[in-house]
Automatic annotation (TrEMBL):
Top-level taxon: Eukaryota
Annotated organism of origin: Arabis alpina (Alpine rock-cress)
UniProt feature coiled coil, ranges: none
Localization: Cell membrane
Name by which UniProt lists this protein: Leucine-rich repeat-containing N-terminal plant-type domain-containing protein
GO cellular component: plasma membrane
Length: 465
């Protein structure tokens, strides 16, 4: 066996002579072997976030083995432990909380096998992240998340755009502001891009033509302006698109119709106008369509009646409220058997309510038609009102009534809405050859219908005698 050891030593010497490198110093305290520099980098990184009083070498002498640290995961490379996942912040009860005077130490960027990095509720005081060191993680990092860090008040570091192996970038509810860096367009391996709940401004980059694998795009709750980029239509794998609560304007791009796999489209609370895109009904996979609080009905042609709603049979939630929509309620909406929520309130809709058809929808659990100019009589049964409870609203329709008063509906019982008009002419009496034209008009009340009709007929008989 001695000759094998000799050969191994000669190999190490030869490797050192050729490459100028030596074998990394390995620590083995009775647990799994780990490169000393890797473990020290881990300890220093955590200490920067948790505080100088934290002594990892005493508390967690084997952080990837017998004494693991909450939020740290490791994997083996060449029979040695390396950190692959690092979550900093109080995610769980036994997680290490971040101190208010935290410091991002350069050792963080020496964890060369790091694949996932998350900061959760760490940066509470105003903090600016350095731009220089992120490139060091570019060879392996696949997931980067900043969640609930109100102290991050700078622009998003442009060097994050160099992390070309990222599959998930989540920047959720922080204080990031300014425009998005243009090189974010190079992250074409992304499957999830969430930038919601920040203070981003400017236009949304029109560079999504290379994002063929993106499944989730959430840019909601920012201050983005301009139009919705046309290149969004090229993200053919997209399942969720949420750009709600921004300042977007212009028309809906027809390219939305190319998103054949989309299940959620949320554009609420923007300034999008120009009517509904007639390509929306081509996205037959949609389960959630939320377009409320957009002035789409302010044009002469809002397109609501032209959309073939009956083709969107997978819809579960449909919110078209506060859009200025006009015309009748499209009959195609009554064909959506999976529909649970329908919001048509606060528009300028007219005509009758297809009550019987809506009542037959098996899954409908919330219907809001209040704040319109609908007319006629609601034909819902008492059972329907009991089922819906406060999830049905029809108030603020001046010409809409119901047979019986129901609580929480906000409508009065119908009175005088049904008019029977009969015209009598050329009625001759036996005693006279003259004709008498009689026109009887009667408003049928909800109570006493037969008595009123009998009195009216008796009056006619007396005239004819």
């Amino acid at each position: 066996m001695s000759w094998i050891l000799s050969v191994f030593v000669l190999f190490l010497v030869f490797r050192w002579c050729i490459t100028g490198e030596s074998s990394p110093e390995v620590t083995d305290d009775g647990g799994a072997p780990m490169v000393k520099a890797e473990r020290e980098a881990l300890y220093s990184t955590i200490q920067g976030f948790v505080g100088v009083s934290w002594n990892g070498s005493d508390l967690y002498p084997d952080p990837c083995g017998w004494t693991p640290i909450q939020g740290v995961s490791c994997d083996l490379y060449d029979d040695l432990w390396y950190v692959t996942e690092l979550t900093l912040g109080l995610v769980h009860e036994n997680s290490l909380p971040c101190t208010t005077s935290l410091k991002i130490k350069p050792e963080l960027f020496e964890l060369k096998h790091l694949k996932s990095l998350t900061f959760f509720n760490c940066f509470t005081s105003p903090t600016t992240i350095s731009k220089d060191d992120w490139r060091n993680l570019g060879s392996n990092l696949e997931s980067l998340e900043f969640r609930s860090n109100p102290g991050l008040i700078s622009e998003l570091p442009e060097t994050i755009g160099s992390l070309t192996k990222l599959k998930s970038l989540v920047v959720l509810e922080n204080g990031f502001n300014g425009k998005l860096p243009t090189n974010i367009c190079g992250l074409t391996r992304l499957k999830r891009l969430v930038l919601a709940g920040n203070l981003f401004t400017g236009t949304i980059p029109d560079c999504f033509n290379g994002f063929k694998d993106l499944l989730i795009l959430d840019l909601s709750r920012n201050s983005f302006s301009g139009i919705l980029p046309l290149s969004i239509g090229e993200m053919v794998s997209l399942l969720k698109l949420d750009v709600s609560n921004n300042h977007l304007e212009g028309k809906l791009p027809q390219e939305l119709g190319f998103l054949k796999n989309l299940t959620l489209l949320d554009l609420r609370n923007n300034k999008i106008s120009g009517g509904l895109s007639q390509n929306v009904d081509k996205i037959r996979s949609l389960t959630d369509l939320v377009l409320s609080d957009n002035p789409m009905g302010s044009s002469d042609h809002d397109g609501m009646m032209e959309i073939k709603w009956e083709n969107m049979g997978n819809l579960v939630n449909l919110d078209l409220s506060k859009m200025g929509l006009r015309g009748d309620i499209p009959y195609g909406l009554t064909k959506l058997k999976k529909l649970r929520f329908l919001g048509l309130n606060d528009n300028d809709l007219t005509g009758l309510v297809p009550s019987k058809e809506f009542e037959t929808l098996p899954s409908l659990g919330a219907l809001y038609i209040n704040g319109n100019n609908l007319t006629g009589e609601l034909g819902f049964s008492r059972k329907f009102y009991e089922k819906m409870g406060t999830r049905f609203k029809a108030s603020k329709n001046p010409n809409l009534c119901m047979l019986e008063s129901q609580q929480n509906v906000g409508l009065k019982p119908c009175k005088g809405n049904l008019v029977i008009e009969q015209r009598w002419s050329n009625v001759k009496k036996e005693e006279s050859s003259s004709s008498m034209g009689v026109m009887v008009t009667r408003h049928v009340l909800s109570n006493g219908f037969m008595w009123d009709l009998l009195l009216e007929l008796s009056f006619i008989v007396l005239l004819l005698q």
